[in-house]
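hey m, so remember when u said the tokens were messed up on ur end? i reran from scratch. heres the input so u can diff it against urs
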Amino acid sequence: MIKTKFGLWDGAACFLVLLLALGLALGLHAGAKNGGAVVAVSADGALALQRPLEGTEGRFPIDGEYPLTVCISGGRVWVEDSHCPGGDCQAQRPISRPGQSIVCLPGRITVAIRGGDGAADLIVG
């Protein structure tokens, strides 16, 4: 087995790769904008509520077998109150980026953020 030493140039190369990865991650994070994103709430497959994510403040009751209250504030969305068994939708953290969603399975209600400037909902390939 050949033993090699880790030299100064090896350390510099590792540092540059880490610096490049950090820069790329920060650039991708900063590039994700929510402008134009909308909050879409579907109940039993039908659109029950649609509001812009930015600039909307309020509590919106959603009717159904298990009614719930969706809150939109500060560019974030969450389920404040739910009458479904288990309350998993209420326990989920607020969502704020396109592609994220909150689902109430017993109530068949979906809260999703769609659209947005420069944000892809799905990338294939």
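this time it looks ok to me. The chain has a mean pLDDT of 84. if urs says something different then somethings off w ur setup not the seq
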